[in-house]
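Incident review: delayed structure delivery

Summary: a single-chain prediction request sat in the queue longer than the usual turnaround. Root cause was a stuck worker, restarted by the on-call engineer. No data loss occurred. The affected request and its eventual output are reproduced below so the record is complete for anyone auditing the incident later.

Affected input:
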Amino acid sequence: MLARDSEIEALVAELRASPWLALDTEADSLHAYPEKLCLIQISHAGGDALVDPLSAASLAPLLEHLAGRELILHGADFDLRLLRRTRGFVAAEVFDTAIAAQLLGRPRHGLRDLVRELLGVELHKGSQHADWSRRPLSAQLLAYAMNDTRHLCPLRAALAADLLARGRLDWHRETCARLVKTCAVPSVPDLERAWRLKGSVRLDRRGLAVLRELWRWREALARTLDRPPYFVLGHEVLLDLAARAARGDSVVPATLKTRDRRGLEEALARGLELPNDALPAREAPDRPPPVTREVARRIDALRARRDHLASALEIDPSLIATKAEIAALAEDHERGLAGLMTWQAGLLAP
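Output delivered after worker restart:
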């Protein structure tokens, strides 16, 4: 793995001479909190490279170069968001092989499936629970990581040729451009709502107050321990504790380590002692607003038209328009079309 400034600079020099670049990343979201960027895999015309973001080497020269290139990725959403969140990186242009496969209507669009079906290469399945922050990484993990980018250039060539033959290359360019734009927007969690876990609508206001304090305690402890929050206590346990505490039946889980029990007990007490006028409000379940009979009729007609088009094109209907986009079109067709990509609007225009 490249872990020195001189090695990074030498890699950038090689990348400048390459007509193409393939990229992938690995994080430690199963083992740390918040997750860290742990590995960058790069393939180029001159070979393959693994870069260690956990080393003291500066990634600035590399990221600056990558930001000005088209990057080949598979399932780019995670990688682009991870790089934006951890390094402030924003790509200029990507070719996403997963999106290409979806727009071609391929029934399987996982990397292993595509490499096997289009290139005749069998990739070994990697571990889904690997700790990418460990050093040194095993030879098996390094080989698995490198395979994530090694075949992307020939895969891109095969998929691009098919997209061009079917007249969908522009669809792919626009879809990838929208993905880049979406992933460039910083993700800012709403801490005023993040504690409202799925299922919390069943709690009364006192239960919500307890849940909020329990969530804040768990969040702080997870960061202290550098472990994902569900390793401290699962969502279901927090909801159960909040409901029981609101009924006057607060019991600390026996599985909780002694060192952490006091913090949980204090969180329970804070929620139970909060004045009634300071309790968080209950929220109605998140249900779509009712629509008129005419709008419902237009939704059905648009859905039927979309599904017919998708069947003829042999692609998933949601690629043409999602359920929310269909509803927006039915409410206000012109405004709905404005929210679609050019190729989607062209298919659905009257």
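Verification: Residues 93 and 256 are 47 Å apart (CA to CA).
Action items: add queue-age alerting; document worker restart procedure.
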